[in-house]
Every structure is written in C-alpha cells, then in structure tokens.
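Bench notes, afternoon.
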Amino acid sequence: MGFTIEDMLTFAGDRYKMSMVAGDRGWSNSISWVLMLEDFTILRNFVGKELAVTTGMGFDTEEKMLSLVETLRDCHAAGLIVNTGYYVHEIPRSVIDFCNEENLPIMTVPWEIYIAEMIKDLSIRVFLQGMTDEQIAAAFIKAISEPDQTAAAKQDLLQHFDIDGDFQVVLLTTPDLDTMDTVERKRVGYRMELYLENITHNCSFFYYDGDFVLICNDLPPDITKQVILDFEQRIALRMPDQKISIGIGSRMKDLSNLSLAYNRAKAALRMASITEQERVIFDDMGIYRLLYLVPDKSLLHEMSADLLKPLIDYDKQHDSQLVETLENYLKYSGSFSAMSDVMFVHRNTLMYRMNNIKKLLGTDLTSAEDKLSYQIACLIWEKVPGTFN
C-alpha cells in the first residue's frame, strides 16, 4: 500500500546508511512525495504523507527541531530524514520522545551522503509505486463493479495479492466526501491512510463511489480489528472535528467474491451512517443484514410505511405512541409486564393501546405471518429511516 517507511529503510539502509532513531511504530506510513526543507515556509503546502528531508540548517537547536516535528505531526507528514554531522550532530532526546509518542518516524543519514541523489532515488521509487497502486486500485474496482470480469482483474493482481485467498472490505466515509473537490478529498484520504498503521502490502486503499475503500488480503481477523481500533483512536486524537463512519464487510474467499464482500461492507457503512454509529460490522447486524442489503428503497417503504401508515397517521394526529407500542409488543412477545417496564406506561394503558392498534390495522396479530410482517415493518421504521425520506 504505497511506498512505505519500511520499504525505504529496506533499500536505503545500506545504500545511504539510513537508520531509524524514533517513531518506529510508523513503519507502515506510506509516502506521497519527498520534499527538502530548511525552514517552515514549504510546510504550508503539505497535504499529508510527505517525507521531509533536512540538513538541519534551519533547525540547529533543540527548540527548533522540536517545533519542526510538532509541525510535521500537525501536517500529517509520513516522517523526517535528518542529514546529521554538520548542523545537527545528534537528535535531541525531547525530539525522540515526541516522535515515539506520536509514531512519527525520524531517520538519520550521515553528512557525507549526497542528499540530492538520495531524494531523487526516493522520489522515483515513490512515483513508480504510486503508478502501481493506481493500477491495483483500478483492478479491484473492476472486480467490484464488473464481477463477470474477475478473470481480467485476477491477471492484473496476481503478482501482488493471493487472489485465491481471503478478502475483506472496509469502507470509510465522512460527511460530504462525495462533494469535496479532488484536492480536499486527497488530503482527507492521505490522512486516513496514514492513520491505518500496521497495514502492509497485502492491503490496498483508494477512493471509489463516494467512499474510501480498504481491501485486506489474508489479514488475520484480530489484526484487522486492531488496525481499525487504532485508526479510530488516532482519528479522534488527530482529527477530532472529522466525523468518520466505518463499515466492515465479511471475509470472503477468492477474488471472484470481492463484489459480494464490497456490497456487505456498503450495507454496514449505510447502517453506520444512518444510525450515527462510529463502526458497524456486517456479520454482527443480525436481521438488519437483509434490510440494509436491499438497494430498492421503495420496496422497504412498501414493507414498512405502507403497513404502519394507519398507526403513523394516528400518532401524528394525536401525539401518541402506537408504532412504538406495537414494536415493543412484538419484541416482548405480547408481555405487557415487560412492555410496561421498558416504556414506563401502565399495563392497562398498553392493553387499551393494543386493542386500538388491532382495530386500526384490521388484524388481531395472532398469525405468525402477520407478526413477522409487522415486526419487519417496525425494524425498518426504527433502524432504516432513510426509507421514509
């Protein structure tokens, strides 16, 4: 997933005598570009995932260096390389502690290294990996949108992923994401990707159809869960004003089932957004898996609003709670005692309401079919409010 700090250290460790001195938990940070800086001016152009390189000329004191890494953290940078030996001889302890705390990788290369050549080399690798990532994303999108074309997608992905292995789709969105301009959307995407720490190259992250898509291949369930939990914590800390909704789909075998995995993640995301939950896992949705997988809102409307219309109209006219009463009557199998405890209404009042409800609906609610129909109608009314728009 992008050219990462780990990738850079793998090939540059010996070639450029590069070593990581702090922030090693950010090893999976992907790099969008490599930029040289000797003062704070260029930082205003950072949009996220940039790798900063400095000789330390403008940051030759502990206070200046600490201010630099704090600013890089705020700019959602991928990391920092310091050319040590002239302006900066060693990284101050306070800077190391800060970078360890913030998971901001900081690397050093000795003064004799030709920095311009190193930046050129890194930039080429970032560019080439970026092109590869775009090709991978296009292949995944083809597998999602054209499941009958999976064979072609498999050919494109064969050298990068285990196409016969497990795939899991995680969708992430934020309000108005689909209306943002490309620059702003990239900025948000870069930050999200940066906070999906410990994601390796058996994953792909891209934007598609109004959401950010994370596809994990053969990633153990416990690691996927931890990645999402860590992501939520980092978003809450670094982007407190950004509301994020997450939908997690089922693990599916083989790339040919990616479209199905995506649709399940989409259903989970839809429920998370509508019910204002931070995260919804499709496999934990129960009967709502069926309801949120239905793309035809008019069908859901027919199954709910049409059935409940007499009660909805009555509630509007009399400011009553007949729909809620019916919902609890079905939920608690007709136990007025249980209903009374939950609704804080006397059982005699509830019995009176139920008689009224049965008259308005024209059914005594004794048949299993009627009970199921109205129970589903109440579930849609309560949990899928988008059908009433």
